[in-house]
Write a structure and sequence with these properties.
The structure is a single chain. The chain is built from 7 helices and 20 strands. The longest helix is centred in the last third of the chain and has 19 residues. It binds flavin-adenine dinucleotide (FAD). The site of flavin-adenine dinucleotide has 33 residues, from strand 3, strand 8, strand 12 and strand 13.
């Protein structure tokens, strides 16, 4: 197990923010994860599990042991008549996993193509796109408690998945390292096309009866067109969650702004489009120094040069204040903040 000291994380986060990890370990398997946790405990340091850094804001250096995982295995656990069960190690790249499953005829993940990050991070915020969330496929999450090094296995129900949410962001925040996930995927030609942009893309390609590969291709095309590539324009994807508000407040807002997109939820609450709120406040394409909201996508905060994490957070605060003042709606940041 190699332990790196004062390691730069600039190339390890998609916003390309400059920050250092006091210690950085890349663990090859669960045994090394447990050894790294023991080491951190002996040094009196907190542990920060990190994947590809595509959903974090590094506000400054991390007085912590940053724990990365490199294990990349797909283990076929069982084959049923119309489904397979797999165990995927945490270090597997998410998009590579989607591609590998598609190539083997294991279906379901196509809508989640091109989401950056590792498989181990997928259950943390229950990644979702184009009408599908990963919880639909997760059978179990395997991991290790940071404090004790003891292993755990959680069922889907125990993960308490929600919109961009799970137990790992709540009760188990900073307490658990995910080492593998078990997925159940279909071997039938099943697709899930309910999202307008996806439907339109398939229509424009003349596909009436899409196969999983068609959905995959369409998702990749739409995302490539709409979302800036972090390699060229450093960003962390959607920077704010879509706010969910009460039905009464939504009704009042729609009276004042009939064009406001609003999606009623099963429990009567209403989900708003954060991008629309931000755009209405004039932030689409707006920039202050090296930080700003993208010109084509108001929800994507971009570091267009050498912005610091603190500048990113200050700008995010300005956006949050403006939306609160204009609409009375509280925006919440999606990425997790680390470092001081
Ligand atoms: C261009 C772009 C597009 C995106 N599109 C989407 C999208 O469509 N839908 C969506 O849901 N998200 C999207 N994201 C956000 C991001 O890709 C996902 O949240 C992804 O799952 C993060 O993976 P990661 O490996 O980069 O995690 P990191 O950013 O490294 O970590 C994120 C959080 O998870 C924790 N974590 C990571 N790995 C582990 C582990 N093994 N055990 C315990 N905790 C862990 C970290 O401590 C941190 O709190 C996008 C991001 C970008 C840059």
């Amino acid at each position: 197990m190699q332990i790196l000291h004062a390691e730069s994380l600039k190339q390890r986060n998609t916003l390309h923010l400059d920050a250092r990890a006091q210690l950085l370990v890349s663990a090859a398997d669960e045994r090394e994860v447990i050894a790294a946790l023991d080491y951190a405990r002996a040094q009196g340091l907190p542990v920060v599990p990190m994947g590809e850094g595509s959903n974090v804001v590094l506000a400054g250096d991390l007085a912590a042991l940053v724990l990365c995982q490199s294990a990349q295995q797909i283990q076929l656990l069982a084959e049923h008549t119309d489904a397979v069960r797999l165990r995927v190690s945490a270090g597997y790249g998410w998009h590579a996993l989607v591609q590998a499953c598609l190539a083997r005829g294991w279906h379901g993940l196509e809508n989640l193509a091109l989401i950056p990050g590792q498989a181990g991070a997928a259950p943390i915020q229950n990644i979702g796109a184009y009408g599908v969330e990963v919880e639909r496929f997760v059978e179990a999450v395997h991991g290790v408690y940071i404090e004790t090094g003891e292993a755990f296995v959680f069922s889907t129900g125990e993960c308490q998945f929600g919109y961009r949410d799970s137990i790992f962001k709540r009760n188990l925040r900073d307490k658990a390292v995910v080492t593998a996930i078990d997925l159940r995927l279909s071997t039938r030609r099943q697709v899930h096309v309910v999202y307008p942009a996806l439907e339109q893309e398939l229509q424009s390609r003349g596909v009436d009866d899409p196969a999983p590969v068609d959905v995959f291709d369409a998702v990749v095309a739409v995302r490539s067109r709409r979302l800036p590539d972090p390699a060229r324009e450093p960003n962390a994807g959607s920077f704010f969650k879509n706010p969910v508000i009460g039905g009464d407040q939504a009704h009042a807002l729609r009276q004042a702004a009939p064009a406001m997109p609003a999606y009623e939820q099963a429990d009567g609450s209403v989900k708003l489009a954060a991008a629309w709120l931000i755009e209405q406040c004039g932030f689409k394409g707006h920039r202050e120094g090296d930080v700003g909201m993208h010109g084509d996508h108001a929800l994507v905060l971009v570091n267009s040069g050498s912005a610091t994490g603190k500048e990113v957070l200050a700008y995010a605060g300005v956006v949050i204040d403006a939306v609160r003042e204009r609409f009375g709606v509280a925006l919440e940041m999606e990425p997790r903040v680390y470092g001081t």
